Backbone:
């Protein structure tokens, strides 16, 4: 099938939906998502969204906290713009129907605090903020007559001049995006979506690693598509590991224990129940995430254990049951009463700070292709994202991208010369094990060699093993009918390759990139 729209959106999380709502008055919008509409990191977000809403806080403080967490390599102009725009974007979310918890007489937002924040500035909805945002936005999208939302449509590749038979390299100056090819997971047909402008809002790539808090749809598809289309990517060495995912090895994705719990007074403890953060940072359990995750990793390695503890008992029974009902219920299901027991935790891959390089309008290096949300790299996070700044970045850049796309669409025509997908000569791959086992190998090698702490040797080993996995999988791809599983595997391999390549190129320990060789050689800027 061939479809034509003004605005094509890939992804139905906070970035894709808020962009769709903004452009909808100006043309026909189609939103594709590869699973159910609500499935994405957005709905799992617990802590909330950071914004300066009252005079007790200031833009300058939020800017400073973001720059410090980013370890000196954030784009300052982007930081300032994002943080100053935050209150307007929050007001819009409320207008779309999103509820945040209120305090006092119900006329002020109830604000939480998280690691790296010098003030209480996290707007939240209990401990399930993302689910509330996703609900509010999805309802608003369903109400809009110009937006068509299509589930189980897997975008495979961005269409560029390459598909018109022209040679495209990373040096080609004016790469154009004409839309995407997408696999209809219900009919197994590959459809052609032609659009005047396209937005990638495909979320993160946590599934490159064995243990991740991100849902199964987070396989870096947008980043991999832009890589294949020869677009510019940046900062992928900065994978953020959340310090506290619930230790429950069989569970995928790993359940998150929000940092807001530490903001409310919960304390990290070692396997024997002793505090240890004083050895690592004066901000103790509320130090920025990179520092806390490394400290936990180190304590686990020294003690030879596979989890530590978060002691939330000091928050009190009422505070825990009313303030963190989702976590309370989840732990109770597993026999852990958090009002009496410590919570077993370990770090998990959580957020990709890097991604598709975009300018302040969310425009990528490929013309008429925008990116917003976790798949993009705006410069806001630098070497390490400050907690609760990603939902904020997603709404700010969805807005900026929408304002720019509304202008671009006026002068752009659909490219009718694009051919349909050619699957001639392909055969069905009947051995799923070729895909499942390769995926496991990939995740394990990334976890063990390209995780929280890296070294030159580990990166080299990961690269060599990935090379073999890449060749085997490309061979499979070249002779098989394309499926969602095969496409995801190729995308995970591309993302792993990019993470390793950028990690090897980064010759200083900064933010989330930490190599023992750089410490040994005295190249570390700090620590
Ligand atoms: P997502 O919400 O991940 O949505 C991605 C969309 O893209 C999905 O609809 C998916 O189907 C679609 N998609 C992907 N690939 C394809 C494809 N090939 N074809 C078609 N569709 C595709 N951040 C905060 O600021 N505050 C928090 O409190 C917070 N808590 C978090 C808790 C957890 C457990 C996790 C995992 C993350 C948390 N984050 C938090 C990070 C934040 O939730 C995400 O960065 C953000 O929600 C990403 O939004 P998004 O719109 O970019 O992508
Ligand atoms: C959390 O609630 O700890 C996650 C917040 C975030 O990832 O920004």
Residues:
């Amino acid at each position: 099938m061939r479809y034509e729209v003004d605005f094509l959106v890939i992804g139905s999380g906070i970035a894709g939906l808020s962009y769709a709502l903004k452009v909808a008055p100006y043309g026909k919008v189609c939103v594709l998502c590869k699973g159910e509409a609500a499935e994405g990191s957005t709905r799992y977000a617990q802590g909330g969204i950071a914004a300066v809403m009252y005079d007790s806080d200031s833009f300058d403080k939020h800017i400073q906290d973001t720059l410090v967490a980013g370890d000196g390599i954030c784009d300052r102009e982007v930081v300032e713009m994002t943080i100053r725009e935050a209150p307007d974007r929050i007001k819009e979310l409320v207008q779309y129907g999103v509820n945040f918890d209120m305090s006092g007489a119900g006329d002020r937002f109830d604000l939480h605090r998280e690691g790296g924040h010098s003030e209480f500035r996290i707007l939240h909805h209990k401990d399930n903020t993302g689910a509330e945002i996703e609900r509010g936005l999805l309802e608003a999208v369903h109400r809009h007559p110009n937006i068509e939302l299509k589930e189980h449509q897997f975008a495979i590749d961005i269409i560029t001049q390459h598909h018109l038979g022209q040679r495209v390299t990373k040096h080609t100056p004016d790469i154009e995006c004409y839309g995407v090819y997408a696999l209809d997971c219900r009919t197994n047909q590959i459809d052609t979506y032609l659009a005047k402008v396209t937005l990638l809002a495909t979320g993160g790539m946590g599934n490159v690693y064995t243990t991740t808090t991100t849902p199964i749809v987070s396989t870096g598809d947008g980043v991999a598509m832009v890589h294949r289309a020869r677009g510019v990517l940046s900062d992928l060495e900065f994978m953020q590991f959340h310090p506290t995912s619930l230790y429950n090895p069989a569970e995928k994705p790993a359940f998150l224990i929000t940092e807001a719990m530490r903001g409310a007074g919960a304390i990290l403890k070692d396997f024997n129940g002793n505090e240890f953060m004083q050895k690592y940072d004066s901000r103790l359990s509320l130090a920025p995430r990179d520092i806390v995750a490394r400290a936990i990793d180190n304590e686990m390695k020294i003690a030879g254990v596979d989890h530590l503890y978060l002691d939330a008992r000091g928050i009190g029974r009422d505070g825990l049951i009313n303030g963190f009902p989702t976590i309370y219920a989840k732990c109770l299901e597993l026999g852990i009463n958090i009002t009496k027991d410590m919570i077993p935790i370990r770090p998990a891959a959580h957020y990709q700070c890097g991604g598709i390089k975009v300018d302040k309008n969310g425009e990528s290096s490929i013309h008429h292709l925008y990116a917003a949300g976790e798949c993009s790299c705006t410069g806001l996070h630098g070497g390490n994202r400050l907690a609760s700044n990603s939902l904020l970045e997603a709404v700010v850049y969805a807005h900026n991208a929408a304002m720019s796309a509304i202008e671009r669409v006026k002068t752009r025509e659909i490219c009718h010369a694009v051919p349909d997908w050619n699957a001639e000569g392909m055969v069905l791959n009947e051995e799923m094990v070729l895909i499942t086992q390769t995926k496991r190998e990939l995740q394990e090698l990334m976890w063990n060699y390209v995780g929280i702490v890296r070294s030159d040797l580990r990166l080299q080993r990961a690269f060599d093993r990935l090379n073999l996995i890449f060749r085997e999988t490309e061979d499979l791809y070249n002779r098989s009918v394309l499926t969602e599983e095969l496409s995801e595997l190729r995308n995970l391999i591309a993302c792993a390759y990019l993470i390793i390549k950028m990690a090897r190129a980064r010759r200083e320990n900064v933010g989330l990139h930490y190599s023992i060789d750089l410490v040994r050689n005295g190249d570390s800027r700090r620590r």
User: Anything to note?
Assistant: The longest helix spans residues 456-479.
